[in-house]
Amino acid sequence: MVLNKFLFLGQEALNRGDYQEALNLFKEAINQGFKKEGWLGVAEAYYHLNDFSSALWAYHKLLEIDPQNEKAQKKIEEIGELLKDVQIKRSHQEIRFKAEGDYVYIKKQKHWEKFWIKGVNLGLALPGYFPGEYPIKMKTYLEWFQLIHEMGINTIRVYALQSPGFYQALYEFNQKEPKLFLLQGIWYEPERAEVLDDPEFLNRLKTHIKDVVDAVHGNASLPERPGFPSGKYLWDISPFLLGYLFGREPEACLVKGYNERHERKDKNFYGKYLYIEKGNPFEVWNTQILDYLLNYSYETYGHLPLVSVVNWIPLDPIEHPTESNIEDEESFFIGVKPNLKKCNENEDMEVFDTYKIKSSFNCFFSSYHVYPYYPDFMNYEFLTEKRPYLSYLKRLKDHHKGQALLIAEFGIPTSRASAHWQVHGWTHGGKNEVEQGRILVEMIKDIEKANCAGYVIFSWADEWFKVNWLFMKYYLPRERKPLWFNLQDPEENYGLLEVYPGYPKKIVSLSGELKEWEEAFIAYKNFNPLNKEGEIKSIRLTNDEGFLYILVEVSTKINLKDTYFLIGIDTGHKEYGEFSFPAGINLVSPVGLKFLLHITGKESSRLLVASSYNKMLSHDKFFSPKKEVFPQKSLAGKWNLILCKTNMRRVTKDFKKLFGPKFYNLSSLRFGSLKPENPDFDSLADFYIKNNLIEIRLPWELLNFSDPSSRKMFWKEKNILWKESDGIRVVVISYKPDPLNPPRALKVLDFRPNPLEKDKINTYVWEKWNVPSFHTRLKKSYFILQRYLKNEKN
User: What one-character DSSP code corresponds to residue 766?
Assistant: First the structure.
């Protein structure tokens, strides 16, 4: 039998108990033609994950290929018996919650006591999947619940109805004693404001609400529907239900459209459990829906849970003088007459005041998503404050005085890029996992000082399918985004649990270990080194689902005070790109270079891009029919920094104060190792130098790949948006810098290939993939939070 690496790794994952990771490995083996062994591995992984229905399906797929397979036949019979015996599981624990005054209280036996909500948000997706595919299985949830509990968390929040395995895992995890409580989300996504009044939509929404409540009580059997969970819900986890969170962050235009549809008339609504007086139409609509939920829950199950509706600070009830609207800014800055027919998502345009929602039964609390870097008023209104986040929270809490206020979402991403600036460095990304942990602790302290009812950290695990506004245009084709990881993207990197490419560990740890490169592609090797200063001994390349890795091996120990390096990268189609080098180096590349690494020191190294291929320079025009972004042929030596604009220029509502735009430098390279035990550890490290080795880790997206899994690179020329790469080529130059005018070259020490000719360059063509491999690791932020949560007074 031909041994396939994915079969080998899949079996290793099974042996190690990494069943969720094994699934992906065996599925990729099937894609590569190893169907019999692959389906057996898939079936066994599902079986160990306690997903017996999927295991049954996979064993039947195996029998289609191998009808006489005895193991499959026996397992099908065994699983059939297991599924017969599944019955409704009910807990006998009596636990109740109430929202009274500023806090939430819990009653386990006879007495009520304050319950400080310490939560974490739990997403739905794993590498290779969108959330609607529900890939996370029961055993994985059990493992995660244990880690979450050990961190000091008492609550998990989910955004929508989960698969049955989630509720089974929560039921089993809490059987000996309740350790984790649930904030159950109820997701809805109307396309337009008028839909909220549509009888058909309302009927679907109320049916969905009933499905969620039934599932929580272990009393639902849902059919298969695209994008929705299905199966039998037989585990009653209602004793562990902290409450329901209805909806998602409402867009300002949706709220505006609905309020205007009803002529902005304030109304009163008096329901059975909730009421609101002088509420705007959108506030009243939400109150009515929540009252319907409470009615159904109590009338059907005798259970009156806590409820809330998802809100966020663009809709807060506070006036923000620094947050002018887009129409006024366009008129002020560029003299464009505003288009009043178009609704722009202005951040201080509408109000959704949940303080107005009251309950005679102590079953309502307010919840907001509050991040420190968005909207812009979170910075500009608090520029002189030592703790801007706390200052805002106090203002919000002052409005909600006497009502429990939950900060239901906040977080700091460990992404390479930042998408929003923050005055004290609590930015929307650009933070390593140690910085993430420290900032999250400070935010928790602020939430406590503001007398909120608790918090829910966003989020538990990194999610590859997510997209941030900086990069979303460049994921082409969009449907393949879950197949690869982008360290650049803040939305993918909020997790406390790192979900990283490769299995069972990182293929390159940036730790100066040459053995990690033994199976790498050799782009160049010097078989007769002379051990001269700056002499290039070998160049190697390898990759995983997130990065291109480059190794430059030098004959002698590297001293960046005396020797600099230029590493030119051709990402495909060698006839296009920049052929000249900077720093006064009078050499011509034999292939068109798209990017250039300039290694000059731990703090000063950077990645440059050929001017014509700088997509960030053309970000707003990338999809304009007049603008082309592709690596045009050049001998001019035009190399750019890669800068992304994180914040647009703003003006206050009275037009008296201007705030300039903010930029983030994506070209700067961070020195460090990826080994947590290494003193130079930095989870955002781009390169590492040890002895005679330079190791480099470059995110695919930073190199303008739109989908590395299918080898697609950005290429906007006429009517095309991408081209398939024919492979990667590398040119390396070492030189002695001019001490009087660094980083210009005083003398070229070596260059490879030598001579600089096309036929001397080896091309690295990596394997495509359709199912990614991955592994997980707790970030250092997890342990920083754990130390704080275990020692806090509450």
Answer: P
